[in-house]
Design brief:
By secondary structure, this protein is mainly alpha-helical. Helix content is 52%, strand content 10%. Strand 1 and strand 2 form a beta hairpin. The model has no long low-confidence stretch (mean pLDDT 95).
C-alpha cells in the first residue's frame, strides 16, 4: 500500500495564512480519502505497489478500461495534494531562487507577473481544480489550470507548484474571499523545495 506523506510542519504551523482546522481536514480527511480509495482500487487489481505513483500516471493503460477513470481520479487527488502540501512551509522561503528564478524571469519577466498569471487562471476556473506551474517536456515553464483532480503528469508535464482551488482548501477561513486565499498561498510557498524539483527534473 502507498503510505501518506509526512508533513514537514505541524498542522498549526501555517497560521495565520492557513488555519489549523482547514489543514487538519485537508490533510487528514480529503487527502487521506483519495489515498485510501487509490490503495483499495489498486489492491483489487493485484497491484504490487513497487512502482512509484508518478509512473502510474503515464501507464494507466496497464489496467482494465473500466477502472482507469477511477484510478486516475484518485491518483490525481493523491499526487496533487502531496505536491500542494510539499509546496507549503512556515519558513517563508517564498521568493524564487536559483535556476528557477532565472527561468521565471525569462518566461514571465518577473515573479509578480507569474503570480498574476496563476491568479488570473484561478479566477477564471469554473468549478473545482488546481492551477499549476509546470515544466513541459521541451524544458519551458507554463501555467495551466486543470479541473477536478487532473494532473499535469497525466500529459507528460512536471508540476512544480499546485494551487488548490477546491473550496475545502480555503473556505473555513476565507469563505468566498478567494483572492485573500491566493495571497496567503503565495506567502507560504517553499521555493527551496520548488527549485529542487525544477533542477532535479532539468538534470534528468
Amino acid at each position: 500500500m502507498y503510505e501518506p506523506i509526512q508533513l514537514s510542519y505541524s498542522i498549526n504551523d501555517l497560521e495565520p495564512y492557513i488555519d489549523s482546522e482547514t489543514m487538519a481536514l485537508h490533510y487528514g480527511k480529503h487527502y487521506m480519502n483519495y489515498l485510501n480509495n487509490l490503495n483499495d482500487l489498486l489492491a483489487k487489481q493485484g497491484f504490487d505497489f513497487n512502482t512509484d505513483k508518478e509512473f502510474l500516471a503515464t501507464n494507466i493503460n496497464a489496467f482494465p478500461e473500466d477502472v482507469r477513470s477511477d484510478i486516475l481520479y484518485n491518483l490525481g487527488g493523491v499526487l496533487n495534494h502531496e505536491l500542494y502540501f510539499n509546496n507549503l512551509s512556515p519558513s517563508l522561503n517564498n521568493q524564487p531562487i536559483g535556476s528557477l528564478k532565472t527561468a521565471i524571469d525569462k518566461k514571465y519577466g518577473s515573479y509578480e507577473n507569474l503570480k498574476k498569471e496563476i491568479v488570473d487562471q484561478a479566477k477564471n476556473m469554473r468549478g473545482s481544480g488546481y492551477v499549476f506551474l509546470a515544466l513541459k517536456p521541451d524544458g519551458e515553464l507554463d501555467v495551466v489550470s486543470l479541473a477536478n483532480q487532473n494532473s499535469p503528469l497525466f500529459f507528460g508535464w512536471t508540476p512544480l507548484i499546485a494551487m488548490d482551488v477546491w473550496e475545502h482548501a480555503y473556505y473555513l477561513k476565507h469563505k468566498n474571499e478567494k483572492e485573500n486565499y491566493y495571497d496567503d498561498f503565495f506567502e507560504l510557498l517553499n521555493f527551496s523545495y520548488i527549485n529542487n524539483l525544477y533542477e532535479n527534473k532539468k538534470m534528468s
